[in-house]
Specification:
Elements lengths: L2 H27 L15 E10 L6 H6 L3 E11 L5 E4 L11 E4 L4 H35 L2
Helix pairs in contact: 1-3
Length: 145
């Protein structure tokens, strides 16, 4: 795998972790949303990753001859929680049913914060990998001077 392919792999990781973080922030922000345009409470969303072949626009002829395909990551789908929402007895709530129960989203903000920290650290690791490859490329160029 060439250095440029390494950058493409890390870039795919950056993109996937960014999308994961966006979904997690959306979950946290809507943890108490009892009414959505679709009707009912907010439904928790989860990101599913899959491996993806990454081709670098800077691939060398040697890499193409050796079939050294790089494998990155991509978001394959975003799953929506279809389980029944939690029901709480809140008779004064505007969204309460005739028995006084309100449908509350099944979102655990603490769990989503931990996942968000994981996404942030994975994003930082990909930035560090790109920076290291960039430094290697710069040092290679300096050797030819």
């Amino acid at each position: 795998m060439s250095l440029f392919s390494s950058i493409s792999v890390s870039a795919s990781g950056l993109s996937a972790q960014r999308e994961r973080a966006q979904i997690l922030v959306e979950n946290i922000a809507n943890a108490d949303t009892t009414r959505t345009p679709e009707g009912g409470p907010y439904r928790r969303r989860d990101v599913v990753f899959e491996s993806q072949d990454v081709s670098s626009p800077f691939s060398s002829i040697i890499d193409s001859q050796l079939n050294a395909d790089a494998t990155g990551v991509a978001v394959s789908q975003v799953n929506v929680d279809t389980s029944e929402p939690e029901r709480r007895y809140l008779p004064g709530h505007p969204d309460a049913d005739k028995d006084g129960y309100v449908a509350i989203p099944r979102v655990n903000p603490a769990e989503d914060m931990v996942d968000l920290l994981g996404a942030s650290r994975a994003y930082q690791a990909n930035v560090s990998a790109i920076s290291a490859v960039k430094d290697m490329i710069q040092r290679s160029i300096d050797l030819f001077r």
